[in-house]
Design brief:
By secondary structure, the chain is an alpha+beta fold. It folds into 2 domains: 2-77, Nucleic acid-binding proteins (OB fold (Dihydrolipoamide Acetyltransferase, E2P)); 88-250, Recombination protein O, C-terminal domain (de novo design (two linked rop proteins), Up-down Bundle). Helices cover 38% and strands 24% of the residues. The chain has helices at residues 79-82, 85-101, 109-125, 129-143, 190-201, 214-232, 237-247, and strands at residues 2-14, 20-26, 30-36, 55-63, 66-76, 149-153, 163-165, 170-172, 185-187. The strands form 2 sheets. It has a 5-stranded mixed barrel. It has a 4-stranded mixed beta sheet with strand order 6-8-7-9, covered by helices on one side. Helix 2 (85-101) packs parallel to helix 4 (129-143), helix 4 (129-143) runs parallel beside helix 6 (214-232) and helix 5 packs across helix 6. The longest helix is centred in the C-terminal third of the chain and has 19 residues, at 214-232. It starts with a strand and ends in a 5-residue tail after the last helix. The mean pLDDT is 93.
């Protein structure tokens, strides 16, 4: 049976001397493992569409749950990312998160749309990397079922807050903070909190249309990254590599 789908390449792994296995996030079928026959041969017609971060239309042959590429047509290669090591490492971090959050044969069009929008924002629109990264992390957490509770202080209900509890995803004001309790609390200000409200609830086509000051963006960035990593209970080597590029010797 032949199947025509669109999807983004999340991972490429050598299979033998001539073939490779791709992990592809698709609109209609979720995450798929696909064999690319002859990909490792010189001048393979699959070389461009089967590279990491390529968004393509695939014609697949399916047999007993196993998929093989029959044809592939490039839709977007995000070549701008390939020419900038920082942008490439950030994009690779995005797809690694997407691979963790997606499941085989379970459609997740919202996650794929977020991934494509963020890659496009970095590659084509020139949106500040720190802003795109924070949006991706916070929105990914929401898609994964870890939407934070931003309604107010978890103790008194006050709308404004001074801290965000990374472990439980709730706000806390200074008056209600209990230093004896465990958990990690990070400072938050009105600008960062307003941005979090926006990113968690806005239309997917308007993800980057919010204004935020530099100090607030720094807080948002720290919170979004820490919250996603905490909820997933794992780190990402690609994130560590990206941060070494950005922060250099200041990254510990």
């Amino acid at each position: 049976m032949y199947l025509t789908i669109r999807g983004l390449v999340l991972r490429v792994v050598n299979y033998n001397d001539t073939d490779a296995l791709l992990t592809v996030l698709t609109h209609s079928n979720g995450k798929l493992t696909i064999k690319a026959r002859g990909l490792r041969r010189k001048n393979s017609p699959l070389a461009a569409p089967c590279q990491l971060l390529a968004y393509n239309e695939f014609v697949l042959f399916e047999n007993k749950g196993f998929y093989t590429i029959n044809e592939a047509r490039c839709i977007e290669l995000f070549s701008e990312l390939q020419r900038d090591i920082c942008k490439l490492s950030l994009g690779t971090y995005f797809v690694q998160v997407a691979e963790v959050l997606s499941q085989e044969d379970m459609p997740n069009p919202e996650l794929l749309s977020l991934l494509l929008n963020c890659l496009y924002a970095v590659a084509k629109l020139g949106v500040l990397e720190k802003k795109v990264k924070a949006v991706f992390e916070l929105r990914s957490a929401c898609i994964a079922g870890f939407a934070p509770d931003l309604s107010g202080c978890r103790a008194c209900g006050k709308a404004s807050a001074d801290y965000f509890d990374i472990s439980c995803g709730q706000l806390e004001c200074s008056a209600c903070r209990n230093y004896a309790e465990g958990g990690i609390r990070m400072p938050i200000n009105p600008g960062a909190l307003q941005a979090m409200h926006y990113v968690c609830s806005c239309d997917s086509k308007k993800l980057f249309l919010f204004q935020i000051g530099e100090d607030s963006l720094d807080l948002l960035s720290n919170i979004a990254e820490s919250y996603l990593v905490s909820q997933l209970e794992r780190g990402f080597p690609t994130l560590d590599f990206y941060k070494t590029l950005i922060l250099g010797d200041n990254y510990v």
